[in-house]
Amino acid sequence: MSSAPIRILAVCSHNRTRSVMMAALLDSLLTSRSVPVAVRSSGFGPAGLPAIDDAIDAMARRGLDISAHRSRPTTAALVDGADVIVAAQRDHVVKIAALSPEAFPRAMTLPELVERATDADPTDVDDVRTWVGSLTAGRTASDYLRAAVPEVADPTGSPPRVFESAVAVIERQCTEAADLIAAVAASGRGVVER
Fold first, then answer.
1. Which ranges of the chain would DSSP assign to H, the alpha helix?
2. Which residues face 154 on adjacent strands?
3. pLDDT tens digits for the chain (194 residues)?
4. 3-class SS at 85?
5. How deeply is 190 buried, as exposed, middle or buried, from its count of CB atoms within 10 A (0-12, 13-18, 19+)?
6. Rounded CA separation 51/56 (Å)
7. Please, what sign has the CA dihedral across residues 18, 152, 171, 84?
8. Does domain 6-189 have CATH number 3.40.50.620?
9. Distance between CA atoms of 185 and 154, rounded to whole angstroms?
10. Quick check: pTM over 0.85?
11. Cα(107)–Cα(105) distance, rounded to whole angstroms?
12. How far apart are CA 104 and CA 80, in angstroms?
């Protein structure tokens, strides 16, 4: 069997701001760490719309071009095909679980992933999908609905300084997530075998 790329899906409300930036950053960060990835993004709004100008500008300042992006709806096929699903809000994780209950163990908000993985041993698993599932082991849907879940702030429509501040937080969280995923991949078993 040959190694396949780690499939990551970033999800937000309309797939025009947060998920687009998370996907671009994760793709760049993991690629720079020589981790084979296939990163996509989606949302729950209309299809075919471009990323917002502020997001395009913020990523351009980081050397990333998202100008060709067009929004894509989140589907059961997309979430079922992902090894790691990072969402912006708890509500997005709930919607993902409604689309595919099997995807719920692999879906977390970006800051939730970083928070849950901080104390986990990334080399004590068979692959990334198993690692992500281990982070949510025992999590029930009813508990999740009542839990305080950290979320990615939506900077859409914010003044430039506030927008850039929010992007800096997203970038830091993506860097931490990329470090964790790269550690799993570096264990020699991190890339999912299919």
1. 18-32, 53-60, 76-80, 90-99, 110-117, 128-135, 141-146, 160-184
2. none
3. 236 899 999 999 999 999 999 999 999 999 999 999 999 999 999 999 999 999 999 999 999 999 999 999 999 999 999 999 999 999 999 999 999 999 999 999 999 999 999 877 666 667 888 899 999 998 998 889 999 999 999 999 999 999 999 999 999 999 999 999 998 888 754 444 43
4. strand
5. buried
6. 6
7. negative
8. no
9. 30
10. yes
11. 6
12. 10
**Which residue carries 């931490």 as its tokens?**
176
**Domains of the chain by residue range:** 6-189
Tokens of 66: 């998202």
Q: How far apart are CA 3 and CA 30, in angstroms?
A: 16
Tokens of 29: 């960060």
Residue labelled with tokens 């499939």: 7
